[in-house]
Write the structure tokens for this entry.
Amino acid sequence: MSKQAAEKQNIDPFKPYKGRFESYHSIPKKGRDQEDIFKELSTMAEEENAKWKTGQVSGTFYHAGDAHRAFLNKIFSLFSHENTIQFDLCPSMFKMESEIISMAAKMLNGDAVKDNNPEDEVCGTITSGGTESIMMAMKAYRDQAKVEKGIKYPEIIMPHTGHPAFDKSEEYFGIKMVHIPVSAPDFLVDPAAAESRINKNTVAIVGSAGNYPYGLIDPLDKLSDIALKYKIGVHVDGCLGGFIFPWIEKLGYDIPTFDFRLPGLTSMSADTHKYGFALKGTSVVLYRNNNLRRYQYFNVPDWPGGMYASPTAAGSRSGGLTAATWAAMVYLGEEGYLKAAKSIMTVADSIKKGIEEIAELALIGKPTFVISFRSDDVDIFHVNDFMKTKGWRFNVLQLPPALHFCVTMPQTFVPDIAERFIEDLQAGVEYAKSKAGTVAETTALYGLAGTIEGNQQVTELVFGFFDYLYSV
């Protein structure tokens, strides 16, 4: 059911099933029929699938088609009950995970590290997603600095466009994240500004490939040089772009160097569950050498329950996700990934060209598959309000106000999607002109975040919303 249809029926768009299906406040005394359960959940799935199958949703759904998804689900079912941490009972898990890591490292030019140090060899682990990959790398830098340099209060320098998972690392692990502002026209981190913040507690610098707001690649070559100069690490967040930039580059696009070809790059995260086209819940974190990776591991040798150790934050993980990830990579192969990247870029290039022809809009930076744009002539939030009425779901940016649309495979399955996008966007600009001087609906949330007081208000609003979502 669409949000518009739900509103017409006075149904909460965030709880559209309330009243339609039974709600459970406790375990039912008698279990339900399997077919009845399947029918109910199928209804939910079909209604939610209808939202993204239009091709009008930015990012979010990265799978490579219904047949591909069905294949991965079939693979998942073979290993759904297996536990990756039980390596003695489930040896297939580490076979597949080690090969996923090796394939990802090769894709991201891990072989280049030996050119600088023959003893280095790119290695890594599988995690539950980009956030865990980032946080595990931050833990590794923290612990390495404590053991090898005696740093008790570690600091990591990051652009303000860096993913909030880095800030989560600050809150969870006690690492100070030093934010460097970005600004027009390119919205990339300033290497000189990053270098100016280095002190005795600095353990690493962060750059993005590409950053979530704009999809842009920071000047990683310069960050690499700075890191080598000060003998600190560089983490490249390739969670969004790590599994598509290599193929876009092979297609002939001008892509700045973003991977292990950079001699100062010491770790990188890349999400297999985005443009790797695996099922949701997997990512790869890679390290330049095993010495750094070992600081990610966790062990309690004297626990009464036996020696406990885990390579990542998670303990038990379903082997189904590992198997599906491995299957996706070996099924698609280089040929499949190149074909997917070409299809995505064909749509993205058409959208970019159309936006450039709308005088009131301006692209941010030099976008590839993530197309971000802003306006000095109209309220971009009014544009977003209009596009929602046409079924489009953008990612709304702030500071400054902007929108982005991330092209994934679902857009490539819909004929003339780029043409409809531009047609509706042009109408959205005209709508925004007609609303000049009024407050957009989108502003109600994003307009609050411009001040410290506003941030506190937004936090309370968001936390209250989580409380509401978790209510039955």
